[in-house]
Design a protein that fits this description.
The chain has 332 residues and is an alpha/beta fold. It is built from 9 helices and 9 strands.
């Protein structure tokens, strides 16, 4: 297994996937919130409790950031961030010269969606998360990695984040290092299944964010191997670049990993992952329910219109990008 050695490097300024828009505001929720995001006393692990705590945590962070819900965090809107203190999520980060995190469409604490992701991953219900895809790593990757590292204890915590562009992976590793998040490891995917079963013990033994470089669609059985190693998934974060077909991936992922929560960004745009929201919610009495949803202003409205909107009422969301947090129903 190729574990990346910690060293500085000159990062390419050529940007790929600039329009990986991310973020949101918490506009609606299936559960009202009434208390902060960590369990006290008895374990609060029903879906209702978990979402209630995460929503309350998001509101507390939003209050500290003046309730903003935009990609670019205005100067002074949130308190200065200290890597040694885990009471606030980190701001989005971009280390490419002359480029901001907003230019890269990074999810941030300045977005309600980013805050909710951080709060959910920081609570006791999430120990393992899969992110498709990393992008440049300064948005949801950073938020999830920081939240899991600062979480509520228990079993080892893993973030598995997949990315095709090695320059984005290098940037993501740099972002995590600068932000004080210890890297679990880095893998170049290869072979028939992406990695060999003999390599899995090292991944299990080294919790933290693992960045997996390669094309997920080339490796049949990769997610099954990973989920067997880490014991399934609590959270899946989906924000694929336009045109990346995850419809072939989801059935195997769901069967082998049984995620409890699925977060979908750009749910209203064609070519992204909004189809999964529609699929999971097609049966009102089915296994899945929408725990929370929202939107945020899109800086790329003209691009969004060119891409096209998903669903008959998609045009109603013009000028905004929507998100959805889906939860598997608790067994009776």
């Amino acid at each position: 297994m190729a574990i990346l050695r910690h060293h500085r490097r000159r990062l390419s300024q050529r940007l790929v996937g600039v329009l990986l828009g991310l973020g949101a505001t918490v506009e609606s929720a299936s559960w009202a919130s009434s208390r902060a995001g960590r369990s006290v006393g008895r374990e609060r692990n029903t879906t209702t409790d978990v979402l209630r705590d995460a929503m309350e945590c998001e509101r507390q962070v939003a209050d500290r950031c003046n309730g903003i819900n935009v990609f670019e965090e205005p100067s002074g809107a949130c308190p200065p961030w200290d890597a040694a203190v885990d009471l606030m999520p980190p701001p989005a980060a971009a280390l490419f010269a002359g480029v901001t995190a907003t230019d890269l469409g990074c999810i941030s604490r300045s977005l309600g969606f980013g805050r909710l992701l951080w709060c959910l991953a920081r609570g006791p219900a999430v120990r393992t998360a899969l992110e498709l895809f990393t992008g440049t790593g300064g948005g949801s990757t950073l938020l999830l990695a920081h939240a899991l590292a600062a979480g509520a204890g228990g079993r080892p915590q893993h973030l598995l984040s997949v990315e095709r562009d090695v320059r984005n992976v290098a940037h993501a590793i740099e972002v995590l290092q600068v932000s004080g998040v210890k890297l679990g490891g880095f893998v170049h995917l290869g072979g028939a299944t992406g990695l060999e079963p003999s390599e899995l013990p090292e991944l299990v033994a080294r919790p933290g964010p693992w960045l997996l470089h390669g094309d997920l669609l080339q490796y049949k059985g990769l997610l099954e191997l990973l989920c067997q190693a880490v014991g399934g998934l609590d959270l899946v974060m989906l924000d694929p670049p336009i045109g990346v077909d995850l419809e072939r991936v989801w059935p195997g992922l769901d069967r082998a990993c049984k995620p409890r929560f699925v977060a979908v960004h750009n749910a209203n745009l064609r070519g992204h992952a909004g189809w999964l929201r529609h699929q999971l919610l097609a049966d009102p009495g089915g296994e899945w329910q929408e725990a929370a949803s929202g939107s945020h202003p899109s800086p790329w409205e003209a691009v969004d219109r060119e891409i096209g909107f998903l669903g008959d009422d998609g045009e109603l969301t013009a000028g905004r990008r929507t998100w959805s947090l889906l939860a598997r129903r608790d067994p009776l």
